[in-house]
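Standup notes
- DV: blocked on the single-chain target, sequence here:
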Amino acid sequence: MLKLSVITINYNNKDGLLKTIESVIGQTNREFEFIIIDGGSNDGSIEIIEKYRSYFTYSVSEKDNGIYHAMNKGIEKASGEYLLFLNGGDWLFNETVIDSLNPHLQGADVISGDTYIFDKSKWSVFFSEDDITIDYFLRISLFHQATFIKRNLFLKCGLYDESFKLAGDYEFFIRTLLKENNSYKHIPVVISHFITDGISNKQEFNAINLKERQMAWEKNFSPLVYWYFLKSKTIVDSKELKWGNRFFKFFPLAKIIDKLFAKIWY
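- DV (later): unblocked, structure below
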């Protein structure tokens, strides 16, 4: 089995798609599969896909039902042990990234590296956390451009929830890592470049993104945790949040209480 599948989804972003493809096919280590899922673009993306088709394990251009439908289509075609979602407009940090991953892609269900991010006119490195905690997900999420997910985790826990438009990966991570306690580790490797101009980072979609994040908590935890989520938005650095985070992380009793509360509530 190949260690890695790189999955790229794209819709009408030919310049970003080209940059992504060039960064992947330019790797010094080509021991991975490369999958392209295009949503039926009409901006010239299809011509780019045709030009580089020989580099792809699988490619398709057809109408889909959104970001997470496209990502799920990629998962269903992948055969690698780990999957990396490097979508159109993201690109690998340098030509030796894949080569540097060999000693790291093992063990954990979710492995997250670091990301070189362009935001507010400057580049900076975003370092993923060493430990996944509730307060981490209250503040931010893992960047899929630098996160490797075991294909078997999707088989065991289910695919992305396609009812989400923007926060499906957020929901997947809190479901599999916080709720179901699957394993995670951080690796000190910069994986990719990411420019914060995607749909989920645009001002007009902020309200949708926030609403879907709340929906993700509601879907996976009882109102006890949902209340905690709402309250904690303003006390991220407080002692109360840190206590609550330890409670949910280290004591199985917390999740039993949460399930009992959910039964009473619903």
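- Follow-up: Residues 206-220 form the longest helix (15 residues).
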